[in-house]
Design goal:
single chain; about 70 residues; mainly alpha
């Protein structure tokens, strides 16, 4: 899990405790398999999109790319 996701999960847990204390309605954030799969999918798609410019530059000579 990325560090920022862990921070958001911690913040959601703290906010749920505050809401539970103020309203009496129990709200517990859970992080299960579907959420972890979604996070992994976002990371993989982002990595593939980041590789596209490098793959396109690899196909043509660098000198021609810099002249354009």
């Amino acid at each position: 899990m990325p560090p920022s996701a862990a921070r958001w999960y911690g913040l959601a847990h703290i906010l749920s405790m505050v809401i539970t204390r103020e309203t009496g309605i129990a709200m517990a954030p859970t992080l299960g398999g579907p959420e972890l799969i979604l996070a992994a999918l976002v990371i993989m798609v982002g990595g593939l999109v980041a590789l596209l410019p490098a793959a396109l530059l690899h196909r043509c000579p660098l000198v021609e790319t810099l002249r354009a």
